[in-house]
């Protein structure tokens, strides 16, 4: 019997017992007032009978429950034990699963780290290969070309595994270590180089540190091997002296000899190759250099002419000027003219013109002398503006040369590209040389113009100073003459 059915039966028996008790209690309450009816007695009897049956059934149910409860409790305890066992097994499995999951995660992390390390090592090896290639002498590139190309192509070959790629890259490391061992005592190997005529010659290289010596197979080319711009092959710079060629040839053949050592590591040859004369340097400036040379020559001629003309300008002597002023003070015209002639130069001409007009109105004398000063000033300042024009025009011509040089450079870049700087050096040289010589012409021209202008101004200032002293003495003599005439007139009146 199930637990739900048992509880339902107990509930029905309880309901019938409760109804019977109520009926028994109700019937005696009605008995004192009216006689009991047979229907009620039968009903009460039936209820009592049902109640007894219910109580009996309840007792049987209780006994059945009691009999079934012990096995069920035993079964429940067995199930609880099984549940604990299953829970223990579940916990073990859960812990094992967590441990396996953690181990798997650790393995994945370690695998990722190992892959990162492998990638890092691969990048290091690749970088090492590039650095190794960049530090090789150009004569060694053809010797180690195969190993370097194999390592470089292995990275892009998808058919190779990681182990094969690492093997190709580590081969470069082993090659570099072998090279270090060979470099301790120098190395000798076969190769090809380009001679001075541009022909490829096969021969022998001898490498000692940063210096490489090449001897062709026929012995016609012996010199240092170095890099030439725009060429992937080593270029041979022949030795200038026979003793050096003989020593290098014996060294290349392994029969002794010494190494002709260049302490500049080839820079001396390069510096000698770019040396040029002044005329070659000027020619690189292009056609703009011709008008600049004309301006420079004209300015130089004008400066020399003006300097010589000002150098021989006669300055008035103080004693002669004092003698002239003494004659003016006395009013002696002839003596003043004679003294002015002895002074000479622009000052003498100006004073002579003023002395010739003594006795005439002072305003006329001032105008005559001022006319002489103006003519002297114009003569001294003549052609000086031309020097200033040359000083101003030279930088502009240099700027014009700079613009044309840059335009030529861009035209060459359009044709040849920017790979070889030598193709662009012509336009750049034209641009810089014209600017250089424009400034070389302008700066001295400005300084000489300022010097000559100051010298001309000093001569004119000296003329004006002497003229002012002459007019001052003339005014004093006129005042003295007027005073003496007034005195004589007063005496005559008295």
Distinctive features:
elongated; five-stranded antiparallel sheet; about 75% helix; 3 domains; about 500 residues; alpha+beta; 5 strands
Could you describe the 3D structure shown?
By secondary structure, this protein is an alpha+beta fold. The protein folds into 3 domains: 1-30 and 42-135; 136-261, no CATH class; 289-493, no CATH class. It is built from 14 helices and 5 strands. The protein has helices spanning 3-31, 38-135, 138-156, 162-183, 242-253, 267-274, 278-283, 289-311, 318-330, 333-343, 345-356, 362-381, 384-416, 422-493, and strands at 187-194, 200-208, 211-216, 222-226, 235-238. It has a 5-stranded antiparallel β-sheet, with helices on both faces. A hairpin with an 8-residue loop joins strand 4 and strand 5.
Give a summary of the structure in a few sentences.
The chain is of the alpha+beta class and 494 residues long.
Ordered list of secondary-structure elements with their pairings:
Blueprint: H1 3-31, H2 38-135, H3 138-156, H4 162-183, E1 187-194, E2 200-208, E3 211-216, E4 222-226, E5 235-238, H5 242-253, H6 267-274, H7 278-283, H8 289-311, H9 318-330, H10 333-343, H11 345-356, H12 362-381, H13 384-416, H14 422-493
Antiparallel strand pairs: 1-2, 2-3, 3-4, 4-5
